[in-house]
Design a protein that fits this description.
By secondary structure, the protein is α/β, with parallel strands linked by helices. The chain is 46% helix and 16% strand.
Length: 285
């Protein structure tokens, strides 16, 4: 299959405008592109062709994107899959990642994020293929070397008993099953944080947070249900120390803004609970 510069990509989306945008962009970038307007059509392509990468919409009429992912992962496990989601929920995206997807992107996709995700996905794919080939060559070399050693020992008559059965080398764990260096997702109740995409959802609704608000809420979630003082929150989330009164005033403003945005998204005002005289903690909403 292709390299990063001429890889073959499958686009699966039931929105014509999305298909048109993705095809135009990726063909200009030099990729060979095949499009499918449904999960059913995508499965037909998967039966006939091999792809280096697939962009698959999560929510489609009929066969869903997760169903296409399952089939593709079974038939062509080397194909890199990026899921596209048009809603703010991380639940389906997290499940897709657990099932082997490389990444997910919110629609409409930002061009720079799409290109970077594709680049990294194809690069990882090539590295895994090279590592598997090196492992195969190493196993073959060791097998040949052991056979030669046994033959030499038998020729000089050292062995008085039949050689023991050849030990089978344990298979290396697939790279995509090895533990990640850092935990990508945090969850507490209906609050889910994606530290890579820098987004937080509550009750499957995306919270439109500023970078500082994201850092504050993400830290509260990471420490939940512990109550965090304003000074600690300011130090850990924003990286600087302050007097008690200063930290209290600054953090109070950010907490107010986060509560307002949670209310706008979900109608709820109890995402963050104030413990008077101590600090703040997230509620298990």
């Amino acid at each position: 299959m292709g390299t990063e510069t001429n890889a073959k990509i499958l686009i699966v989306d039931d929105e014509e405008s999305i298909r048109f945008f993705l095809r135009e962009l990726l063909e200009r970038d030099g990729y060979a592109v095949v499009v499918a307007d449904s999960g059913e059509v995508a499965l037909k392509h998967i039966e006939r062709e091999e792809f280096d990468l697939a962009l698959i919409d999560l929510k489609m009429r009929g066969i869903s994107g997760t169903d296409v992912l399952k089939v593709l992962h079974t038939r062509a496990p080397d194909t890199v899959v990026i899921m596209l989601t048009g809603h703010g929920s991380l639940e389906s995206a997290v499940e897709a990642l657990r099932q082997g997807a490389h990444d997910y992107l919110f629609k409409p996709c930002k061009t720079i994020e799409l290109r970077e995700s594709i680049r990294v996905g194809l690069l990882n794919r090539r590295q895994k293929q090279k590592q598997r080939e090196l492992l195969r060559q190493l196993e073959q070399h060791l097998s040949t070397t052991l056979d030669g050693v046994r033959a030499t020992i038998q020729e000089v008559g050292v062995l008085s008993t039949p050689p023991a059965p050849r030990a089978v080398m344990p298979a290396a764990a697939p790279l995509d099953q090895q533990p990640a260096e850092q935990k990508r997702f945090l969850q507490y109740g209906s609050l889910i944080v994606d530290l890579t995409r820098h987004v937080i959802t509550m009750e499957a609704k995306l919270l439109e947070l500023s970078p500082t608000e994201f850092d504050v809420l993400a830290y509260l979630i990471s420490e939940a249900p512990r109550v965090i003082s304003p000074q600690e929150l300011l130090r850990e989330a924003q990286g600087y120390a302050a007097e008690v009164w200063e930290a209290r005033d600054i953090v109070r403003y950010h907490i107010y803004r986060i509560r307002q945005k949670a209310k706008d998204a979900t109608g709820r005002t109890d995402a963050i609970r104030t413990v008077r005289g101590v600090g703040y903690t997230v509620s298990n909403v």
